[in-house]
């Protein structure tokens, strides 16, 4: 869901460049120019702040600014907010790719990562319809994009931080990684339930896979 929202916001803001009441080519250039500085900042901060903060924070930030832009007048005010939102969603997009791969256990990491990317393409298919909704009500596209960003930022709080942690090798370890973290991201002491034979069997299956 988080990756889908990032893809939707990213593509939706690109398609909205023409409807911001500003020169299309200039608006597109300015929003696209945010990619290099945003990704450079992400590289610097990713191993310091962690994947969770750099996904949830920027996607909520992008959603907020996109939502506010819906109530601003067309032209420079909307373009400025769109540029800031695009900068933030670029960071969230890059961080969630790393985060999702680290949450999926080794035995399912390739197929899981593929499923994540396919879901992003599905979300991208919806963005033209969202942009087209402007014909029914002018602020509607920006409201929908902003609401999507704010909604999934709450989902991100339910997932654990993976910075500095060993990636799960089995489904059992992935489940423990998720259940051993609170809403605030603080690790709890979780008792290992289940016997060692089950755990060893899971690891053997992962190695075979």
UniProtKB/TrEMBL annotation:
GO terms for molecular function: transmembrane transporter activity. It is found in: Membrane. Signal peptide: none annotated. It is a multi-pass membrane protein. One of its GO terms (cellular component) is membrane. InterPro entries: Sugar_transporter_CS (IPR005829). It comes from the Eukaryota. Keywords: Membrane, Transmembrane, Transmembrane helix. The chain crosses the membrane at residues 24-47, 54-73, 79-101, 113-133, 139-159. This is (apollo) hypothetical protein.
């Amino acid at each position: 869901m988080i990756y889908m929202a990032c893809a939707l916001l990213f593509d939706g803001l690109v398609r909205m460049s023409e409807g911001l009441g500003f020169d299309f080519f200039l608006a597109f250039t300015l929003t696209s120019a945010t990619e290099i500085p945003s990704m450079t900042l992400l590289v610097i901060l990713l191993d310091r702040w962690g994947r969770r903060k750099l996904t949830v924070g920027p996607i909520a930030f992008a959603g907020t600014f996109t939502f506010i832009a819906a109530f601003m007048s067309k032209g420079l005010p909307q373009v400025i907010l769109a540029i800031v939102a695009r900068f933030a969603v670029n960071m969230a997009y890059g961080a969630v790719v790393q985060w999702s791969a680290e949450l999926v256990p080794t035995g399912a990491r390739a197929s899981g990562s593929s499923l994540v990317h396919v879901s992003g393409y599905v979300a991208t298919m919806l963005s033209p319809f969202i942009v087209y909704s402007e014909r029914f009500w002018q602020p509607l596209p920006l409201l929908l994009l902003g609401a999507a960003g704010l909604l999934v930022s709450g989902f991100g709080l339910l997932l654990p931080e993976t910075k500095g942690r060993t990636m799960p090798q089995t489904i059992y370890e992935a489940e423990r990684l998720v259940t051993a973290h609170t809403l605030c991201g603080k690790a709890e002491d979780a008792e290992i339930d289940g016997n060692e034979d089950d755990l060893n069997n899971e690891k053997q299956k992962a190695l075979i896979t």
